[in-house]
Every structure is written in structure tokens, then in C-alpha cells.
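Journal club side-thread
Mid-discussion, someone asked how the predicted structure for our own chain would compare to the paper's figures. Pasting it here so we can look after the session.
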Amino acid sequence: MKDIIINALNECLKKLKINYSEEIEINIPKQKENGDYSSNLALKLTKTLNKNPMEIANEILNNFKCEQVSNIEIKNPGFINFFVNKDYLFDNLKKVLIEKDNYGSSNIGKNIKVNIEFVSANPTGILHIGNARGGAYGDSLARIMRFCGYEVTEEYYVNDAGNQINNLGESIKARYYEKCKKEYPIPEGGYFGNEIIELADEIYKEHKDEYLDKEIEYYKELGVRKLLNKIINDLKEYRINFDVFTSEKEIGKKYNLNSIIEKLTENGYTYEKDGALWFKCSELYDEKDHVLIKEDKTLTYLVPDIAYHYDKYNRGYDKLIDIFGTDHHGYVARLKSSIKALGNEPEKLEVKLLQLVRLVENNEIVKMSKRSGKSVTLKDLIDEVGVNAARYYFSKYSLDTQMDFDLNLAKSKSNENPVYYVSYAYARISSILREKDYEEIPNKFETLNNEDTYNVLEKVYVFPEIVKNAAIKELPHLITNYVYELANIFHTYYSKNRILSNDEKNTKENILLIKAVRQTIKNALNLIGVIPPEKM
């Protein structure tokens, strides 16, 4: 409807021979008496036309034509308020019932190829709360963009090379030697998690002390494989299924990291200093230069990351989105500099930084798992509150804001818990539909004509626009906020209106209305990885 009114206003401006290059703003008034939609166009045209905005608004009123608009009112200081007939709401109700799971989808993405890389935790341990937040954001964004016609690849970059993997292998070997009553020191920078001890236990249970002569490569390969498999399984339980796992080790084989450095040198972006080779990124986006090859001739961790992004560009994506922790803030300029230095377009890369999460229980910060005494893991969180609550709460906030995750609220069965409140709306409708349901859609809805009904229909109607905005602005929390508002409007409607009555026509139309609400709730929740319950 907004687009229809905007098109009609543009036609009106042409008729009045008024040139206006800005985008026409259409808003939904907070007070119903100010119409269904409102525009400040007359106020915007005041300087251009050198006229009073009320005069301009009345000129627009006299030349405006739109079948869907039943009345227009002008309000000081020059707002144009539009009252529309409600046929479009019932046309949309039919649309929801016909399109079902596709309601709200679009092709605004026009098959643009997007790569979203997120989580990408080193396979040296298990996933923690920060990974949970980044995972929820990345996967929700991918779902939303796919729903809007983008061709999306969800990617996990596996850091399976370098010093951290050497330390992983040494840590597992040390724990295995410990089981065999042998001495072998855990290296500086080694790993002490329970998962390392469990891996050593597995080796010992199967092989006793027969593997004491195994080379370190065995322990490195075993550790990466086992821990990555655990990460993948935890993510699957969290409803994240990556399309691609890219190995740092394989990138190194594919490109020969020295050839990447040679290309940077050929393009004039390296120099030698103090026996090391430096990347001249201060000439591009960074505040200072960084080492590529250290004095001992080993490569810094920056080099494989440069090669990895070079590879992503070579795969032909139109847009790259990286989701990093806030501690990677300084890394963004380095990556963009390397992309430019290698001859690619840095504008294609967008880096999002996720802010910190605090777990709160009984108004106190929770830092340790009750079960393990270690940092709270993704699996701990899922076991504590469930996948639905975890996905919903992490999708509830903008990524760039710090958030407190209230465990008590997430587990509570009350209307104060938003995921419970939304789920209850879905389950309540499902319960009614198990008692009575209709499939046939009437040509005309004749009994749904009160304000509560219109409020529900209007909220359902704007869902496709909300989804488009969430995709374009890359803000999944717009969906979460929307579905809560829809549930709230439904609960109000339900409390004031009788769904099942002796009036068969009214009952049928109410049933079809709540089916559309349930479908919209389902579609919205699916975009943030939440599966609503049929019963509660």
C-alpha cells in the first residue's frame, strides 16, 4: 500500500509539474484518527516551491487520484493523511492462505551471490556464548536474505594450520602420556579443556600405551577432526548447517602462500625492515603496517587470512560478509587493505563486529558452567534454556549492542518471556485449528469488520516489507521485534473476539484469519531459526 500511495503521489507531482528527486516518505501514524498512512511531502516541498506547506498539501489533495484511498485529510503544519479502504487487507489475507510458507518472500536479491562467514571458531576447543550470538546472527541473516532472493553461502573457515594447531597436538599428546604414566610437558599456549583430556582418554582406552611413538601429526589431525566434528554437531543442534567448510591448510596448498606475498610485492605493497617483510597497509586503510614474514622466515597468521579472502573473491561472490568478535576491530582495516592491494574491490567486503554477551541469573553475572566449572558453552546454554530461547534472544538485539542474556527470563513460562509469549500465540491458534478448520477461501470476507480485526490484518500485511528491510539493512532483530508485536496484537484480538460461535460464516472467517496469523508467525520465526510448538 505504501508503494501504491507513493506512485500516486509521484503521478500527482508530474501533473503539477513539480520536480522532486528525493524519496517520498510514507509513515503509519501512531493515532488512528490520523489515518492509515501519512506523508510529510508538502513540508519537504516548502523550500523548493517557496510556498506555505498547507497550500502545497491542498494542491496535492486536489490532484491526487488513487482507487485504494477512500479519504484524505490535511493536518497542520502540512501533513497529508490517507485513509484507505480495507479491501487490500482481505486480498492480502487470501494471499497468505495461498502462499503459505512462501508468504513474505520476494526476489529483491535478484540472485546476487552473497558469502556469509561466521562462527569460524578454532577447532581447539568447544563453542562458547560469543559463538552462539554470532551463529544466531549469521544464520538468521542467511535465512532472511535467501527468503528475499539472494543466493547465499554460509561458510565456516577452519583454522587447521599454524601454531595453535601445533599446540593442540602437543596438548593432546601430553595428556595421553599422562594417562600412560609418562612425562610430556603441555606447551606454553597449550590447551587445558576437558575436551583435550577426553580425547587423550579415547586414545588410551583403544590403544593403551601402544601409541607413545606416534608423531605429532597424528595428534594434530585427530584433535582437529574430533573437535571440529563436535563443533559441527553442536551447531546442527543449534539449527545451523553450513554450506561450506574451508580449510586454512587447503588454502595454503591451493595458492602457495609465498605466491600471495609475491603478488603484494609486485603491486608495491611490501618492504623489508629489521629482517622482516612488512605489508604496507598504512598506505591504504590501516593506521600502521604489519609483518607478513617474520625475522625467522615464518609467516604471520595474517598471510593465510589474506589468501582465504583472495580465494573468496576468486569464487565470484558479489558481496562478502564477515562476522567477527569485537576484539577483531583492528583486523578489519588489514583485511580491506589486503583486498585492495591484491587488485580486488574492498567495498564488496563488509565486516560486522558482534558485541559482548553477559549471562545473567538471579541478577548476577554467570561466568562459569555449573556442570564443568569452566566457561559456559553453547551446549550448556542449549541444555539450560533450549534452542528456541537461545536463537530468539540472540536475534532480539542488534549485533552492535552489548546484551544481557537473562537465564531466568528465558526459562520462564510467563508473558514476560517474549519467546514464550510468541510461542503461546502460535500454540493457541494451533489448538483452535485442531478443533475446527477450513480450507476454502471465500471470494469476499463479510463479517470481519471491527478495529481489532483490522489491527491484526494490518500487522500481517506489513510482514513482507519488514522482511525486505531486514534483508536490505541486514538486521534480523527487525523480524524478532515484528513477530512479538504480531503476537501481542493477536492476543488482544483473541481476548475481545469469539472465534468459534453459532454464526458459521463468522466462525469460518475468523478461522481463516487466525490461520493467516499462525502462518505469518511461523514464517517469521523460521527466519530466526525458531520452531514454534503446536502445543503448550
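Post-session note: The mean pLDDT is 95.
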